[in-house]
Structures are given as structure tokens and as C-alpha cells.
């Protein structure tokens, strides 16, 4: 891509996007490499030798052993675009009979990105292989110059480089082309992998992307190996959608406007028989916007009898227990989504890639992933779509009860990824226990007494909702366990998100993510932990909850905060004080023995609030729905940031140990007197057997004294 096609703002945006890509995929020296012959073998059938010879004899674009591409002194990158478009558009129809693929120069034309929240970001590949077919549609936000051109109907992209700028390896060009690849994954939700060609006037190579990350090939001389170059062009423009990298079990009907209007999804039922569902909507209800990782995508489908289900497609890391193991164990539990059928190990990312050719370090950066599909009985949308205060609080209460049911059954299950997207509303009119549901057990583990099997990892879960102890796990000096209390703390941050970011209920009300809540999502776990510690150890400010939430909800939030603050304080003492391993284990064990009381207390707080809340919110005149992401509060004044010593706390945490980069390997009113509910005091037995007050008991006493 020529630098001249970008203005300063676009260049800055591109640089920021590249940094996100580097954080996700890794530095260039750890990206796996392979031989291009692996991919050429997969594309060999697309062009037989006799057909290649016939094409080369016929074409005017390959003469005297050289493709007719400008070369020599004074040639600029943009001089390569049109010649390559001409070459590709002569190759494609010659070999792909009745092809619905076409190469188009797209440099300088904005191909708009799809993000959440929405942005004006765009990028411009040098060339796009435009596609028609059951997996492709016109973009929803179309470029003015060509409204039919976008990432939603791109079979692949061709990135042009001058030979002198290409270098000896493609590793340095991966961040650039991954920007395009990421948008193809987002805007083509049935993508399994994306392959992009990088081409100069003399050489070409391929960059491959899948849910395990990236892989690049060596470079071939396109003049000396014209047949192989032809096969590469044909491979990234193939009319065979499966070969192109698409999941053909999901197919759409394209309407007259060029956009998807309906579709089907084919899978297996509980007896292993093939079944085809209709898509309720042509687009997924959830789509994780990343390449490397689980790549979770959820669809709502309907069977022939009119029953609706939620289908979840994801990529499980090899060696991790399958989500279906936990879903089978969770059958019959209230507050937990129930499985109808599933397909395990549909295919693996290792089968998309060639053998490693650049050493153990790059090989260590590859984690094989297996595709799986789970069909769940259908419930409501995520909790952020609540229609009243009582609706939200009731759903969260029943999700917490569902978490208790998972933990307290015979084979205890720990969820480990509580977030606003993993809590669904129950169906309208649902009774107590069925008003909210937990989904997404692919990060779950069996709650074992062996700390090694329950170790906390700041790369597991959703950063904004991770507990402080999980965020501090990067320190590594002392093994910290991820337990049910960490998940309960995550539920607290879900409640905070609802009350701090929503100034109303209903479909027209969107989250206004306040500045200090955004800081909980910091890529650096030390910073995220510091901001949460500062938030917990200081009283709420009057403007923290939005004006929508009444005194009953604020009281619930205060009491939940008091509970979490006490647990965090005790855990920090357990893990940071100079205790022997035995003393530490004894204290943790004593804490865990109170799980029944912990759940009973929290559920009681929610039940009290629900009983006091009206079924419908009071009508507020002139209420305005918020519809933008902002760093300002809904009432118009700047929201306070939790500076409250957060910077010094972050420094104290950070200097203890190096902070790892976040990985997608596993890895958004009138006052009333505060109601203080006294907590039951308890004791912790020391190593010598003497009984002494626990830090949690001391904190409770301090709170009562205040």
C-alpha cells in the first residue's frame, strides 16, 4: 500500500491497529513460518500442467519468461496495481469456469471496518478479490466510489510491494495484512481461515491466518515459477468456499440488494443425525472481534417445529477440557444454559498449516485449536438488554444462583469467565430461578483441591470483569488459586457495569462506558488491578451510579461492594503476608468452607432488593436514550477517574514482577443512609492451632464500628 494514499489521521489509525495486531499475534520473530510448497500442493488441482502451458502460450502478460509488470529504476509501488489486476483477471476466468471472482484495485478506496462500538475506521488493501456467492454480501457501509466493494465480499486481498521493499521474509508484513484479515473474519462470520498474497514484480508469498494466529511462507520467484504463481492466484480466488476458508455448513440466501436476507445452519442433533436449522436472523448475535483465540460466534436458529436454539461456534485450545464435558454435568441445573446437542473436534487449525521452518521459538508460539459447535436451548438476549431495574437485578440474581448450583453439585464446576455477555436474560414471565442464565463454560474447570489445577491466570477470562486476585496472578511468586470468590467478584463488576454505564432500560438505550470503568479493561493487569483496588477502598461518589438506578439498587451495590472488599482484603493478606504454605492453605480452606454462607448472603441481598423494586420502572418525563460511547457521565459532567492512589498502587504491583502481554490464548438521585449489614465473624486456625481473628472478621468489625 502506497503511503501517499493515507492522510495523517488514517496513518495514525493504521499504526494503532498494527499495535493491536502485534499484541494479539506476537512480534515478527515468533510468528511461525512454513514452506509455500505446502499450500501449492493444496492448490495443485486448480490448474493442471497442460492448462498452465496453454495459458502461458496464449497470454500476452507473460513473455520471455517474465510477467509484464513494471520494473526498474523510478518505479513506484502504485505502478504495480493495475498490471496485477489485469494479470489476475486473465488467470481467474481461464481456470475458474463460470467464476464469480474478480480482482479490483482498491488502493485509495476506504473499505470500512466493523467494530463494537462502531467507528469510522477504514483501510485500503492494494487489490481485493471480489466475490459473489452464498457467503458474501455487499458491505453495509459502502465506499462512495464503489458501493459493492468491502470486506464482506472479499475472497482475499493482494498486497503489492516493490521488490526492494519486500525483504527476504514476509514476517514484517504480517501486521499490515492482518488488518485486512481481521475485518474479513468479522464481516464474514463463517470464516475458518484467511490467506493473503504479498506480491512484488519478481516474488510472491502467502500469509495465512486462523484462530491459532498467523503463519507466513517463503518467497518464490514468480517469473521462474509462473505455474505456481498461477496456482496461488487461483487458491485465494477459488469458487470452492470450503477451500477458500469458509464454513459451508452455514449458508445464506442473498437478496436483490446484494445483502443476506435469510440462511441455514446444518449440524447434528442429539442422536448424531444431520439437521438443518433456519437462521432466525442472518447475522450472529455475538461475534468475538479477534483472530487468535476462541473466535466465539453465536447464532439463533429455529427448527421445523418453531423451537428456537442458540448455536455457539468456537475453537477450543488443544489440551483444554471441552465445554461439552461441563454442559453434560450441568444438565438439569437451574440458572445454567442447557445443551441440546453438540459436535466436537470438527476440524483443527493444525490441518490448515504447513510444517514449521523457523525454529522452536516460533513453534512454541503456536497452539492448536479444535472447532466445536454447541446447540443450546434458547433464552433471552444478554443481560445488557434488560427492560427494567427489576429485570436486570432478577436476572443477575438467578445467574449467581446458577453459579452456586455449578459449584455445589457433586462434581463442582468453576465458570471463570463471568461477564455481561455470558449472562442471558430468561424468557418473558420466567419464575424465580429461571430469570437469568449463565452460558459459555469453555473456560470452566473442575474445582479441585489441588491448587496447581486451579491456578489463577490473568490471561483467562474477560479483562474488565476479572477479580483483583486473578489480575495479580502475573506476579508469579506465590501460586494463587482461582476460586468461586473470584467469580463472585466478577458478578460485582457486572452489576457495576450495569449501574455505571446504563442510564435507562430498553432496546434504545446503549451503554455509555465511563472513563474509570474503561480503566478496568487495561491491557496491563497491574493497572487494571490498581484501579479496582482504588475503587473498592473508597466510597462511591454520588455520580458513580447513573440517575436511572434508585436507592434500592444503590443499597444493593453498596452491600455487594462491602462483601467483595472484605474478601479481597483477606485474600491480599493471605497471599501477600509472610505466611507459611501451610498457614496460607489453612486460611484459604477456612474461607472456602464458608461458601454456603457467602452465596446465602449475596442471594439474600438480591432477594431483598427484588422484593422492594417495582415490576415496571417509573415513567420519567423527557428521558433521553444514550447512544454513544463516551468518557463523560450520562448527566453531562465528567466522570471521576479512580486516581485515588491508583497510580502508586499500579507501580507497587508492577515492580514486583514483569508483566506478560495479554494473550488471546485464553486469550465494555437523593441519597439515603447506607444500610450496613453485620457479617458473621469467623476465626482462622494458625499453624500452632491457636484461634485468632481473621482479616475478614477484622474488616467487618471496622465496618461495624464506622
Automatic annotation (TrEMBL):
Basic residues bias locations: 676-690
Record region (Disordered): 622-706
InterPro entries linked: Kinase-like_dom_sf, Pkinase_fungal
Bias-annotated ranges (Polar residues): 627-648, 695-706
Regions crossing the membrane: none
Ranges where the Fungal-type protein kinase domain occurs: 152-498
SUPFAM superfamilies assigned to the protein according to its UniProt record, in alphabetical order: Protein kinase-like (PK-like) (SSF56112)
Name assigned to this protein: Fungal-type protein kinase domain-containing protein
Taxonomic classification: Eukaryota, Fungi, Dikarya, Basidiomycota, Agaricomycotina
